[in-house]
Amino acid sequence: MKPVTLIGSLVVALGLALAPCIASAQQAAWPSKPVRFVVPYPPGSSGDLIARKLAPYLSKALGGQFVVDNRPGANGSIAMENVARSAPDGYSFVFGTDIQFAIAPVLYKLPYDTEKDFEPVALVTVIEILLLAHPSVAANNLQELVKLAKAQPGKINYASTGIGSTHQLAVELLKQRGGFDITHVPYKGTGQALPDLVAGQVQVMFAGITQSMQYLNSGRLKALAVASQKRQPLLPDLPTVAESGFPGYEANAYWAIWAPAGTPAAITQKLYAELRKQLDLPEVRDWFEKSGLAPSAAGPEELAARVRADRARWTRVVSEANIKVDQ
Questions:
Q1: What is the dihedral of CA 294, 37, 106, 323, to 10 degrees?
Q2: Disulfide: which of 65, 198, 206, 284 matches 167 by Cβ 3.0-4.6 Å?
């Protein structure tokens, strides 16, 4: 029995010694099969378009195929759970938004833990949102809107893309900071809300600059402010909310990449480093900027800090506004 025991011990010892080498070789060979960017929204959504724009560049640079896997539904939890339950081997990533990581945990009971089941990889782009108004509204800037709303409490309606959306929380934060009251009218997405704003069925709303520009250029809507820290290059004369009497205000959405917890750091760092290179390519930056997007490529630490700050802010807003959702 002793010789067998000795041989078995040697085999185990050899296996333990080789394991780091095998793992290192596998990571060095990454990607050796298709890498999924799992998007919590349908084809044609902004995140889907961004992921599909980046995928060919990453495929060429890293020598593997990057594919977009659309898994919409349940406020993004279908896509999130799929990645959370995937092997942490560098072949599944969430290409998601602040909604999944900074807002949903505040509002919903989720079948996963956004802090324990995921690791941040990179902030890809910030989606700057504009405060829009129908031309019939007797306000041409945010200060005038606040004055009007205070004179007519609850009579002005604002649209959002749904209860608990970034667009609703952005307005509720304004209401809390400014001490005025306007009435919420939730819709199921920008595709439903924006046409009603154009038609004058509602008076104001926050919306992404990409969807808004055609209506601003045609005069069918007017912009009162932008929710970013800096002015938007496409609308340089439009003041920020912070410049309009709300110092420090920011309420932009963003797209970012997360990996399942436990994904080797060598892989996530490799992806992040290459993503930064691709976002610096002139043709890629030009595409982003013409789409009204701000390419970022901030790293995992900055992304994690941003999510923590946003979650803390939205927790306060949700509590004060008593926002409830159906579970």
A1: 70
A2: 206
